[in-house]
Design brief:
6 helices; alpha/beta; Rossmann fold; 226 residues; seven-stranded mixed beta sheet
Length: 226
Amino acid sequence: MLGGGTAFALLAAVLALLGAGLWVIAPAVVALAFLSAAASYLYTTLAGKFVVWARLLRGLGLRGDEHVLDVGCGRGTVLLMAGQLLPAGRAIGLDRWNAAEQSGNAAAVTRHNAELEGVAERVDLCTADMTAMPLRDASVDVVLSSLAIHNVVRPEDRAVALDEAVRVLRPGGALAIVDIRTVAEEYAAHLRAAGMREVACRDVGWRFWYGGPLMATRLITARKPD
């Protein structure tokens, strides 16, 4: 996005210097679109996602002694933020550590980040696929996931991942997923069919746009029946 924006901006500048008149408008508009998308992406990945998840985690009203599972935890953005709210609990990060899905994705990196954040003693890492979680039924109080489940290619396999999240939740437990908007309603519909209560789906706003409104994300929340 930065490269494309820069290239079209240079083209617009050259055309302006050559006195090309209205021919400058098209590359200038394209440059603005590319550079705006790059700015949106950089803001989200460097700051916006932290702001959004901090607000979402506060909204869960955690006591501090819960077991919280982050599905597809990656390098630990959400996992470690949750860990900071669990002085007497556990933050469990599950991932298959696929670097093709996130650069630098490795259990050792996440463990190091946990040490840097001072929460390593509260964090457990689990190497597994989200469609076959090696966790007991009803063993966690909260399930979280941030931009991970859409990496499962087939819709039927994404449904299995959601079923696994429901399975490991304790009765009354909460689920909060942020993912790209194209799959959000799919998740909500499946969770309703699975018997989850209070299922809701909403946009999380411009702070979580990965390149502009076309890459907006949505929050899916639900609660397991008691």
